[in-house]
Amino acid sequence: MPASGTTGPYEIMRKRADFLAARQGVRLVGDTVRLEMRRRGPAENGDGPRVGFTVTKRTGNAVTRNRAKRRLREAVRLVAARDMRPRHDYVIISKPDVLTARFSTLCEDLRRTLARGHKRIGDAANGN
Question: For helices 103-120 and 62-75, what crossing angle results, to 10°?
């Protein structure tokens, strides 16, 4: 059984301070998601990637928001987790289209947005 807060090859972010720190990094907008990401400093704990999910009340009631979060978590598990870099924080923010888009479209959008983010912070060039 994985340790609390870990799922597969990444850790789940749960503290507000972590979400706010990621907000200070790169922000990108895709068709179905918005992404905030940053590279953690050497003094910060953890070597693997950390992921946080946000679905606002504007999306709908609790049932709708939970459905959106489940779709995002599954897209990360199937597609994005292998593209995530060590020592990086990712906050994936749902847009309303996350509920109506085909799942393959959601996965491809998340993959493209991650790639753009890595390129923007210079990780694509040095492979870290």
Answer: 60
The pTM (predicted TM-score) of the whole model is 0.85
Torsions phi, psi of 104, nearest 5? -65, -35
CA distance 22 to 15: 11
Q: 68 and 29 in contact (C-beta within 8 Å)?
A: no
How far is Cα 55 from Cα 46, in angstroms, rounded to an integer? Answer: 25
Instruction: Give pLDDT tens digits for 57-92.
Output: 999 999 999 999 999 999 999 988 888 999 999 999
Cα gap 35→93, rounded to integer Å: 6
Q: Which of 25, 85, 14, 102 is nearest to 52 (CA)?
A: 14
Return d(Cα 3, Cα 83) in angstroms, integer. 22
